[in-house]
Design brief:
The chain is of the alpha/beta class. It has two domains: 172 residues, Lyase, Ornithine Decarboxylase, Chain A, domain 1; 216 residues, TIM Barrel, CATH 3.20.20. The protein contains twelve helices and 20 strands. The chain has an eight-stranded parallel beta barrel with strand order 2-3-4-5-6-8-9-10, surrounded by four helices. 45% of the residues are buried. The N terminus and C terminus are likely disordered. Bound molecules: pyridoxal-5'-phosphate (PLP).
Amino acid sequence: MGPKFRKGTNIVMKDAVLALRRTWAEVSLDAAVRNHGAIRAQIGGDCRLMAMVKADAYGHGAVALARLLQELGTDFLGVASLDEALELRRAGIRTPVLILGFTPADMAPVLIEHNLAQTIFDEDMARAMSRASAGCARALSVHLKVDTGMSRLGLVWRGVETLPALTALCRLPHLYFEGLFTHLPLSEAADDPETEAQIAALALMRDALAAEGIRIPICHCANSGAVIQYSKARFDMVRAGLLLYGLTPEIHLADRMDLVPAMRLCSVVSQVKTIDKGVAVSYGRTFRAPAAMRVAVVAAGYADGYPRALSGRACVLIAGRRAPILGHVCMDMMTVDVSDIPDVHAGDPVVLFGPELPVSELAALAGTISYELICSVGKRVPRVYLRGGLEVGRTNYLLGDEEYVTRWPAAPTPLSDAPSLRL
Ligand SMILES: *Cc1c(COP(=O)(O)O)cnc(C)c1O
């Protein structure tokens, strides 16, 4: 049994603060608000914004972010699956939601009941969804996805010869074709001819369907890269994920918009000690101290989402200084070199990544992308939501609903003595 938290009370209580004494992710809602504003400024007033909150809002916490986005008037929320959509509806989110991935057709009544829009991407699926929606009170809202060159989901586009199939789909009964979209595999590269061709193909389909009397209100194709690089890709709506969280798909795009990383992954020092020359550190003995050195054991590991691939490669920040990781990152902890950092003690805060230590830098060292690192932050890592430097809410996935903050968006309360205040 986890500790009980009364609804409507300040949740910064003894047990909850103790939960922060290991590893947690601070999520700056101020950063999310600012990034949201930067996206709006970039796309202009006539274009809608779908905020991508799939994968638990890229690890930031889907419900908390969706509440904020609803407050900000975001037009649409994008999720990957029916369960992700239902999580939002269950939390009382009323903003329109599009499911971008596969949902079995027999779920159509559930989609309709919860007012969820579903992506459809081939004729069999469209017919099955149409049949499954027949007995329902309303038509099922669908967005038709066309594959113009990514070879992932979508009706394969082979040019104008595909138009009759597209038109036939859009005439199926019991479906309301709210959206038409495609997806770009290389939108972070400027002036890419294949991307230009994909954008032109979407415009062509939209116009050809309109000529047949089929007007689809929301055409969309731009992801974060295209929001920066391709103004022509905006159509009626953009689907932005990474930008909202203050990151860009490529490091060279970082100064193109006024963004602030929303997540700071934090941990604490569990133990500090001196090891002798020649002594090995961590599994596999891949590192041996070349001389006596001071090391700190940090209470985060790969089960928290910190990549093991960063073993012996990356640094963490302690008191604002870089402490190199020694040997292998373990499941629950890692050992770092603090020989050059004076006065390190058990309980001191550690930054694993955040505004002061870019996740893109770690991603490059780990041979991956920022997306993967933020999405991988584990379920045992509480998310602590900050506004104006004050805690306004917290999600602890292990302790469950009791710690789910219900005061949203009431007045913030101080983060009390949580270590993050001293960063
Ligand atoms: C995830 C996703 C996006 C958002 O991509 P970002 O690069 O994070 O902006 C847009 N469209 C589709 C279909 C997606 O799956």
